[in-house]
Write a structure and sequence with these properties.
The complex is a heterodimer of chains A (205) and B (468). With 205 residues, chain A is α+β, with helices and mostly antiparallel strands. Helices cover 35% and strands 30% of the residues of chain A. In chain B, strand 17, helix 15 and strand 18 form a beta-alpha-beta unit. The longest helix of chain B is centred in the C-terminal third of the chain and has 20 residues. Chain B is elongated, with a radius of gyration of 25 Å. The chains are: A alpha+beta (205), B alpha/beta (468).
Chain lengths: 205, 468
């Protein structure tokens, strides 16, 4: 394992498989951030090789709007991030509300590449409501993964959302199968208004 | 090179090991208490009809009444299978002689190999097995039992373990202790055994070979598997895809609570441990997952005796109200439902049942129900198109229930149209009826929970077969 794939490269890789993530940009200074926000609320994240769990390390600032708030947030975040060594600041448009799920990939030493779907966010380990399948998965497998979740009626409340999730799972399975990746986390993926946004990506080579 | 050769090697032919015409026992001895003595004694006790050749380097010419040999190479006749029970260090030499004698398969009962860190000694056995293309089961195992062939390499004294009757369930156990205790229980579990195999260190013949062999074995209708792990994950999956479409494979994997290996870098890796991976593979490829050894026996019983059904509407007939309520709970807890009877069925039942019986699910036919009432209820309900399977709760403590009731249920079961399970519990009077029903192919459970779990297993498997 050689470490974390750069966010932009990860983003580009996902785009090749039709997986859409929330609009984002690397930001050099507070002025960049204000311009990127375009008057709408944004999230600022500090990316470092050292701190893998950004939320736990306090390297995420949510829902910043207006130039003053953004400028203050940017300054605070860079101060915190400098403790972890080299860092870059990523700005993302804020996705409000919705249900947080996780999609991921892991290489099992016995069976090989496996994909995961679960109830997501920062409490994944606490809820442990997830399903795993060996890659590459079929649509039958994707549907049975959804059915296996205790939260299946919340995660896929209607056929349209189920279809969207099945397609997303198929894309993640394909991406993971095709590429030389050791671990993959899309967490959280926010389900809202009949669509989804991948808010955080972590790909370990 | 060697790894690609490994991946492509052909699957072991286990016929000569399960059904040999002639057997050599290496390490056979007259001294009671020795493993080689117990194995020899077993072959004599079970009445093995083929030729038996005791081999012992120190023999003076006869062991337990059979002509004995100092080496397998001294035997002039053809030998299909050799059971090896000599000290670990002596195994490579005698096994090589087996190869020279064109033995078709060996079971190495002896311990003292990889399980205690002696991997190099074990590797020697693997090399010999490959050199002569002679499949090896073990080392460090109980070996095989095939009741049809009266072939039994187990070194367990016959008076200590009940022999199962002949049937369609084959039982595979990596562990010898789980194997022997479960085997003892199978004899009273209401189904018959086809083949038993305990494969120990799996140095050559492993779970992939065994699953492949049993999936194509005409004497095996149901496979029951206790495993601690697989050695060749990808090939296991390949073989499983076919095996589970041919017959049900009930499986239990030990080690569900093992601690995760090292710190994970991602949420996914921290959730997706080794046990979770096994569980996922079992789900994905149609295995019937058992939670414990009770499940293994319960599930084997329903698969061995009942037709598959994909619908989940379970009709309950009971001669005790309380157990009917428990059954309803158990049914819904296991993802099954009670059926809505058709108007026609309700009319037939209303006519056939006394006024004290309320026509609804679960159908409580009363503590005074006799065989005629059971039969009427079974006929009407099993013909209802909205019913997929039946659970018949038969409490023999009630005044009306007797051997005629058991006969009625057996009579229905003989038609094998829709799956039926019976729930019955109690003392000696009840037990005698349970035995009669089970001998006639009716699976009887001592709780509504076990009955509902088993039905859910049957239906889940049938659905997998149907949708794949």
């Amino acid at each position: 394992m050689n470490g974390l794939l750069d966010y932009k490269k990860a983003n580009a890789l996902m785009a090749r498989y039709g997986i859409k993530s929330v609009g984002s940009a690397y930001l050099k200074n507070p002025e960049d951030a204000i311009e990127f926000s375009g008057g709408k609320p944004i999230v600022l994240k500090a990316l470092t090789q050292k701190a893998l769990h950004k939320t736990k390390s306090g390297l995420v600032m949510l829902n910043l709007s207006g130039s003053r708030e953004i400028r203050n947030g940017f300054t605070k975040l860079t101060k915190k991030a400098s403790r972890y060594g080299p860092y870059t600041i990523l700005g993302q448009h804020m996705v409000k509300g919705g249900l947080e799920i996780i999609l991921g990939g892991n290489v099992d030493k016995q069976f090989g590449k496996m994909v995961l779907l679960g109830l997501g966010g920062i409490y994944v380990e606490a809820f442990r409501d997830f399903a795993l399948r060996l890659c590459p998965i079929t649509r039958y497998d994707a549907n049975s993964m959804i059915d296996q979740l205790r939260s299946h009626s919340v995660v896929a409340p209607n056929p349209r959302q189920r279809e969207m999730l099945v397609n997303l799972l198929m894309a993640v399975s394909k991406l993971f199968s095709d590429n030389d990746i050791a671990e993959l986390d899309l967490n959280p993926v926010i389900l809202h208004d009949g669509t989804y946004d991948v808010v955080d990506i972590r790909i370990l080579k | 090179m060697s790894s690609s050769h490994e991946a492509k090697r052909k699957y072991a032919d286990l016929d000569p090991i399960f059904n040999p015409k002639s057997v050599a026992i290496l390490g056979a001895t007259d001294k009671p208490g020795k493993v080689g003595h117990a194995i020899m004694q077993n072959y004599i006790d079970v009445g093995f009809s083929g030729s038996l050749y005791p081999i012992n380097i120190n023999t003076t010419g006869s062991i337990m009444g059979h002509e004995a040999y100092r080496s397998i190479l001294d035997v002039k006749a053809k030998i299909d299978m050799a059971v090896i029970s000599v000290p670990a260090l002596a195994v490579p030499k005698v096994m090589d002689e087996c190869g020279k004698a064109h033995v078709k398969g060996v079971v190495v009962v002896s311990g003292g190999f990889a399980e205690i860190g002696e991997t190099k000694l074990q590797d020697k056995l693997v090399t010999i097995s490959r050199k002569y293309n002679m499949p090896m089961i073990g080392p460090n195992c109980l070996g095989v039992m095939d009741i049809r062939a009266r072939n039994d390499t187990l070194f367990l004294p016959t008076f200590k373990i009940d022999k199962p009757k002949i049937g369609g369930v084959s039982f595979v156990s990596q562990s010898g202790s789980v194997g022997s205790t479960t085997l003892d229980l199978i004899s009273g579990a209401g189904f018959g055994l086809s083949r038993f195999i305990s494969y120990g260190n799996a140095a050559v013949v492993d779970e992939v070979d065994i699953l492949k062999y049993l999936s194509h074995d005409i004497h095996t209708q149901v496979i029951v598997f206790y495993m601690e792990g697989v050695k060749r994950g990808e090939e296991f999956v390949e073989v499983a895809k076919t095996a589970t479409m041919l017959k049900p494979v009930v499986i239990i994997k030990a080690g569900s609570t093992e601690a995760g290996a090292g710190a994970a870098h991602s949420h996914t890796a921290s959730l997706a441990g080794s046990y979770e991976a096994y569980d996922a593979v079992f789900r994905q490829y149609g295995f019937v997952r058992a939670a414990d050894t009770d499940d293994l026996l319960d599930f084997a019983k329903i698969f061995d005796t009942q037709p598959l059904a994909t619908g989940n509407r379970i009709a309950v007939i009971t001669n005790g109200g309380g157990h009917g309520v428990l059954a309803t709970d158990a049914i819904y807890h296991n993802g099954l439902t009670l059926p809505q009877l058709t108007k026609k069925t309700e009319r037939i039942l209303r006519k056939a049942m006394p006024p004290t019986v309320t026509i609804r699910m679960p159908l409580d036919i009363g503590g005074d129900a006799d065989s005629a009432r059971f039969e009427n209820a079974l006929d009407a309900i099993s013909s209802d198109p909205g019913v997929d399977a039946l659970m018949v709760i038969t409490l023999f403590q009630t005044p009306g229930a007797d051997d005629k009731v058991a006969e009625s249920i057996i009579g229905y079961g003989a038609k094998r149209e829709k799956p039926v399970v019976v729930v019955s519990m109690g003392g000696s009077y009840t037990k005698s009826h349970i035995e009669v029903m089970e001998n006639s192919g009716i699976p009887v459970y001592s709780s509504t929970t076990a009955a509902a779990r088993s039905l859910a297993a049957l239906i889940g498997y049938a659905r997998y077969r149907n949708t794949k």
